Amino acid sequence: MISVSGLTFSYKGAPGPALNGVSLTVPEASVYGLLGPSGSGKSTTQKILMGLLVGFGGTATVFGEAPAHSGRSFYERIGVSFELPALYGRLTARENLALFAALFADAPLSPDTVLDMVDLRDAADQRIETFSKGMKMRLNLARALLNDPPLLFLDEPTTGQDPARARTTRHLIARLRDRGKTVFLTTHNMSEAAEICDTVGFLVDGRIALEGRPAELMAQFGKPELVATARRNGALTTEHFAMEGLAGNAAFQDLLQTGDIVSLHTREASLDDIFVAVAGGGK
Length: 283
Fold this sequence. Notes:
The chain is of the alpha/beta class. It has ten helices and twelve strands. It folds into two domains: 2-218, 3-Layer(aba) Sandwich (Rossmann fold); 223-267. The strands form three sheets. Strands 5-6-7-3-8-9 form a six-stranded mixed sheet, sandwiched between helices. The longest helix has 16 residues, at 163-178.
């Protein structure tokens, strides 16, 4: 669906390149998460893939074609949800969607259908100027779904949403993937990326510094140790044990004999840990 090789780009007057040899591939029916600190080139990459920036080096194809040369038909096949919603405040949610649907040659999903998908049907006749930021973000996503596109570009899709709404949005993204849609996602929410992305790429200083499946990366960066939570004298305590030589570890054996074990699990790195290791904490 997306193929990028040796992508470079520099903004006029900038001290260095925004992109410095980015290469990545996104297969159909998958969710790719582009992660990285602010200023690492995530938005620049998205703009090139959406045909909004030209004058870059290397190659970038979407649907097997260069986005900037694909014409109007290209925009009929993608959906875009920006981090900052672009909506008309004095119009209702339904009126906004009807307006944007009219821009497409074919928008097979009705405003009410996409409002149902993002759980905003009850607010269909409410003016956008009264919406919270989270509601605007959900409506922004609904707008991206009107043309039922095979490819979605989502930028921080759960910004401003409470945990329950954010979970609903993540489940929607997973269902879209299961229906054969491809999602190119940028986010600073590492737990979100770990949950819904098939592959993540860490973009640092204009390059993909690390790429892989979240579970595999977390196992790779995790420490080989066992974390035991037990109840001792009525209080919960957590202890860490090296996996090597565990059977002969006297402290662990004592815990098994005298402690009320609540949980045992191996320690994995989180994507937050990997982000800090790869990007140095970000900006």
